[in-house]
Amino acid sequence: MKKFLLSLFAVAVLGSCTKKETVADTEFSDTDSSMAADTPPVSAFKSIEYSPEQVTEFLSAKENDTLYVTNFFATWCGPCIREIPHFKEKMEELKGQPVKFTFISLDQKSDWDTKVKDFAEEKELSENIILLDGTLLNEDFFAKNFESWDGSGIPFTFMRKKNMTDEYMSMMTKEQLDEKINSFNKNGK
């Protein structure tokens, strides 16, 4: 049964966002073209691996006024990569405010020290990425943590402030991200 669920999860993720999908570097580059390509990263990548149980704890309600924005992604997922600049822009805009952005990589473990590391350093997200071995996820993980996401695809964004949550399956535009974050403040969330 476990192998069946794992296979189902893998097929679902690949069906939503496939590795065959490629994105040209210029399509999502957020660096100035006049900058040298060998500019050192702001911070070195820290390989922080969470178990499904640790992710569940991370996603749980906290008794503070912080809005937690958690994005599940993979470096091979074109829509995931295309929405990252929106998140980075919002992170910069909200710097110093009670908002925490975290990106949970569902890349294969064999890519953590190469593709994920390179991506994190290039996008200056080294301190915002958590590694999660997707092969350990099962339907109980999704049922326990989310109302609508069953692991059938990425990107997926989960927002929580205290007991209020919002889930979004698919690539978010800048306007959608702004609207969702602003709704937590407008509605007293």
Note down, in words, how this protein is organized:
- The protein is of the alpha/beta class and 189 residues long.
- It has one domain (2-17, 47-186): Glutaredoxin (3-Layer(aba) Sandwich), CATH 3.40.30.
- Helix content is 39%, strand content 17%.
- The protein has seven helices and six strands, in the order H-H-E-H-E-H-E-H-E-H-E-E-H.
- The chain has helices at residues 2-16, 25-28, 52-59, 78-93, 112-122, 139-145, 174-186, and strands at residues 49-50, 67-73, 99-105, 129-132, 156-161, 164-169.
- Strands 1-4-3-2-5-6 form a six-stranded mixed β-sheet.
- A hairpin with a 2-residue loop joins strand 5 (156-161) and strand 6.
- The longest helix has 16 residues, at 78-93.
- The N and C termini lie far apart (39 Å).
- The relative contact order is 0.20.
- The model is unreliable at 1-15 and 18-41 (pLDDT under 50).
Topology:
Elements: H1 2-16, H2 25-28, E1 49-50, H3 52-59, E2 67-73, H4 78-93, E3 99-105, H5 112-122, E4 129-132, H6 139-145, E5 156-161, E6 164-169, H7 174-186
Parallel strand pairs: 1-4, 2-3, 3-4
Antiparallel strand pairs: 2-5, 5-6
